[in-house]
Design brief:
- The protein is of the alpha/beta class.
- The protein has a single domain, classed as TIM Barrel.
- The protein is built from 15 helices and 14 strands.
- The strands form 4 sheets. Strands 1-2-5-8-9-10-11-14 form an 8-stranded parallel barrel, surrounded by 6 helices.
- Bound molecules: tryptophan and manganese (II) ion.
- Tryptophan is lined by residues 89, 92-93, 96, 102-103, 177, 179, 225-226, 229.
Length: 451
């Protein structure tokens, strides 16, 4: 069980979902280059996130994890990043205020570039080419040149991640996230929607609270918590060559940390106990996520947790259930119960997106807002019944005015999908739908905390 771990011990295992590079020397060269560059995050930050997650596991805080399904190199302009960030801020403030509960803010951003695929090849009109595996591997265009895995993309992924992270740090710490700015987080296209009006009302109450406290003599200028947020990053630890190249040893503690993001997660397709991805993640001291689909059994989870968290470190593991509306009530309770009996205090987080992907009549990959809400509702209900904490939400969203998921207060239909469907991968909630979900979740969280 406790065999030696090294940053490359995963290479002795079967690694699913990794591309085959035609030029092994070019891959090794890119890995060496990355290994010589600074990590994007520091050990102390990963430790701070683990401390925050430990509070979530105890039921004292809530985790909000959101961002794109897959980021793309083309679409990482400052506006896109800022728009995503401010929707996350809005959702966070809705939950913090609505449920009087601290919210841990975690983006799936600044590194979410690799995608698992069900098949290694895609065939169109008799031509077979490698599947698109995300911008870190190849291009989406259906040509042999674009689809050939290119190691230089690892370098681009690093530099995109670094610049996005730099912007996020500025937005989180530089005044944009100040609670006094709450009115400025609403995008123009959301402002006049029912969600926008509801948010403006809440923003008005927050501004009143601040003004009242300040009138009472409270010195806002001396209270740093009002002016900034802690914002953490995460992505799926899929591309192990890239992830290994960014592993660093913390001088002070001698521990190994993944340097590409604060939290890394194992996907539903790469979480076999004996597989390479589990081997890689078990040796890192970052907090880690594990996607848990409808077929996961209690013993699967127990074995996995024994492997990645033998010492039961508080805040180490976030279990992200992605069951599908309708399936969750039959699947989740046994898992929650078995971990409680084993005295495993994990963070339970609900991904209501990935079990609810469907095809529309006009050929779009979409999700119904109603199904997403049902899964979230059932998640809170199961935890209430089991006496455990519904710890967080994991969702795919964007700050852009897209039409990718059906339903919500805007009443998007199959026909709406044709208007602004922009996702290169899975359908995302737009700004209005994200806010709507946050308002509902805040009520559920509040009810759960009262009980
Ligand atoms: N720093 C506090 C927090 O993160 C309060 C806060 C400041 C905040 N700006 C925010 C909360 C924006 C949510 C959104 O909770
Ligand atoms: Mn996705």
């Amino acid at each position: 069980m406790n065999e030696m771990w090294t940053p490359d011990s995963w290479r002795q295992r079967t690694a699913r979902q990794l591309p085959t590079y035609p030029d092994a020397a070019a891959l090794a060269q890119a890995e060496r280059q990355l290994a010589g560059w600074p990590a994007l995050i520091f050990a102390g930050e990963a430790d701070a996130l683990r401390t925050r997650l430990a509070a979530v596991a105890r039921g004292e805080a809530f985790l909000l994890q959101g961002g794109d399904c897959a980021e793309s190199f083309e679409d990482l302009g400052a506006d896109t990043v800022r728009d995503t960030f401010r929707v996350i801020l809005q959702m966070a403030v809705v939950l913090t205020y609505g449920a009087a509960c601290p919210v841990v803010k975690l983006g799936r951003i600044a590194g979410q570039f690799a995608k698992p695929r069900s098949s290694d090849v895609e065939t169109v009109d008799g031509t077979a080419l490698p599947s698109y595996r995300g911008d870190i591997v190849n291009g989406a265009e259906f040509t042999a040149a674009a689809r050939t895995p290119d190691p230089q993309r690892l370098i681009r992924a690093y530099s995109h991640s670094a610049s996005v992270l730099n912007l996020l740090r500025a937005l989180a710490q530089g005044g944009f996230a100040d609670l006094h700015q709450v009115h400025r987080w609403t995008a123009d296209f959301v402002r006049d929607s029912p969600q926008g009006e509801r948010f403006e009302a809440l923003a008005g109450r927050i501004a009143d609270c601040l003004a009242f406290m300040e009138a009472c003599g409270f010195d806002a200028a001396r209270t740093p918590q009002l002016h900034a947020v802690e914002f953490y990053t995460s992505h799926e630890a899929l591309h192990l060559h890239y992830e290994q190249a960014l592993v660093r040893r913390d001088e002070a503690s001698g521990r190994w940390y993944g340097g590409s993001a604060h939290l890394l997660w194992l996907g539903e397709r790469t979480r076999e106990v004996e597989g390479a991805h589990v081997e890689f993640l078990r040796g890192l001291h970052n907090p880690i996520g594990i996607k848990v689909g409808p077929t996961a059994t209690p013993s699967d989870l127990q074995r996995l947790l024994d492997r990645v968290d033998p010492d039961r470190v508080p805040g180490r593991v976030v279990l992200i259930s992605r069951m599908g509306a309708g399936k969750l009530p039959n699947r989740l309770p046994a898992l929650v119960r078995s971990l409680r009996e084993a005295q495993r205090d994990v963070v339970w987080c609900c991904d209501p997106m990935h079990g609810n992907t469907v095809s529309s009549a006009n050929g779009y990959k979409t999700r119904d807002f109603a199904a997403i809400v049902t899964e979230v509702r059932d998640f809170f209900a199961v935890h209430a019944a089991e006496g455990s904490h519904a710890g967080g939400l994991h969702f795919e969203m964007t700050g852009q005015d897209v039409t990718e998921c059906r339903g919500g207060a805007q009443g998007l239909t199959d026909a709406s999908l044709e208007e602004r469907y922009r996702s290169a991968c899975d359908p995302r909630l737009n700004g209005s739908q994200s806010l709507e979900l946050a308002f509902m979740a805040a009520e559920m969280l509040k009810a759960g905390r009262k009980a």
